[in-house]
Design goal:
46% of the residues lie in helices and 1% in strands. It has 664 residues and is mainly alpha-helical.
Amino acid sequence: MDTMMERPAAMRASRPASVGVLGTVIAGLVLAGCGRAPQQVEQSVGTSTAMSQIPTTVRAVWVAGIDTLQLRVRALDGALVAAQGGRDSGAIAGAQARFREARLAFKQIEALTAYYEPSTTRTINGPALPRVDEDEGPEAVFPPEGFQVIEERLFADPDSTAIGDALLETRNLKPYVTRLRTAASRQQITDDRVWDAAKLEIARVSTLGVTGFDSPVALHSLPEASAALAGVRALLSPYRAQLGDSAWRTLDVALSHAIGLADSESSFDRFDRLGFIATGANAAARTMHDARLRLGIGTPAERRAFRLSAVTIFDAGAFDAGAFAPPRSEVATPARVALGRDLFFDAALSGGSSTSCATCHDPALAFTDGRARSASRSGALSLRNAPTLINAGLQLGSFYDLRATYLEDQVTDVVRNAEEMHSSVDAAATLLAKDTSYVRQFAAAFPAARTSVVTGTTLRIAIAAYIRSLEALDSRVDRALRGDTPALDREERLGLNLFMGKARCATCHFAPLFNGTVPPMYQDSEVEVIGVPAAVGGRRMQVDPDSGRFRITRSAPHLRAFRTPGVRNAALTAPYMHNGVFRTLEEVVDFYDNGGSTGRGLTLPNQTLPFDSLRLQPSERRAIVKFMQALTDTAGVTARPAVRQYQLQVSAAAATRRPPRTGH
């Protein structure tokens, strides 16, 4: 979960107009900036002088929206002053209303703000959790700031102290908005990035906006999603003349339909997220794509996890696993994948040739081993639970404690770990270099190598390429989100809407990958403290003693923090959690429904999982489990090759190995 707080009953307000002040400003700017009546430019697509002026108009629209945000933040300041003391319920309600208006103003400019000023965006509207600067050491922990902190103080329990804190945070927020305006007024805007920002905002609304990710207490997510979509429509309005009446009308209808769906339901819990995504947001994204092509506008020249060529974030082929590889990595060719596949199943990588990667990641078990804890070389079940490797390449960071950024580093770590493979990639390469068939296979996979081709570096690159090839994103859930909604039955559809709504699961397991790497840019992976118990049952529950990421950073907020795993193929990967404590998905859902360990009476001050009950009905818990079961897809990735038999002189080669480093 994204914040540590209790969940009060949802506080809903009547929705303001979708465009409001910003829309009025835009209407004047568009007329002034484009200077042509629509009927005069039906033939003028992509290359006119007016077209070249549009980015300047877009920037003016953005700056005007920031001006509106500044006014709304000032109004919030005044309302909080009036509410000081926390005794006047009317004044508190007024401050809450001014808060909603201020963040609606932010949402209307979120597309360009998040795109061009991501750091400032996080400060203004980031999670209400302490921020750890790992580069500066374990003591570099900074308190949260911005709208989400204000929301927590103002909506969770607005007493006099909370109101005072909210006022202080509002005044801290003001200079950041001023900084944003200064940056925006100087920013060089280009057409390709305007349309890219608009596409990313549609993805952001679909994956974060409607889930409660950044409105976890007020649950004002649906009006804010509407405002964000209205902001996209406003952002693209300066292109209206160049598109012509017919094309603009098509785009406007699609965006208006998505906005209407967000406006159609006042209850956060009852909102049909599947319908919104499949028939609203995706349709808007496709229509935007067609409009961009009509204008002759290309896409930025860069590599990104959510492909620039993809139309929606739910499309087949929308993700590029290579974008999660180290910078300047070479392409994962079929020859490298095939080599990595053979290496994955070869025990020659381990000390004594006793263990392969497949020992703990068996394709027959969805690349897990079916145990609560994996066995170490001594035979003791002392390692952490083996996670699936299916779609493991579609995330930033490996291991439960995120100690390795890239899969290549994970390979190195596992091979050298004394409790796992007890060797090194260099020693394994020296051994394999004695096998002529491997030498030929390495040479085919790395034809540009200038020196010895069988090296520790090429070995780990090949295995990482194979793991990245284990991609399966065509479950029935995927097909439903792409528009084939009958792919899910009624109970599974309810489960999807609960997972992405009332149950708050998707505020950590982000759709559509359903792992913990944050969309739509996929540049950060979250760790969470949920209070996993050491065991279930018994008279007294205790939190598992594994310190998690704290062991790596030594930073207090990371004590017992673990990487958020993916839930795809969860039906095949029991048991669950880093220690395998839960045997069934039903147990997992029950644990979350009861607020983790803190919700069960244990003291865990840094738990990030909200510790009050979700109040799920038995039928709702069953529906969530059925939804997760519908995320099953292993097509094309679980075939196990025939194990090759190598005549290697293991004892002679052992003398060339470097002593392995230990540590799990």
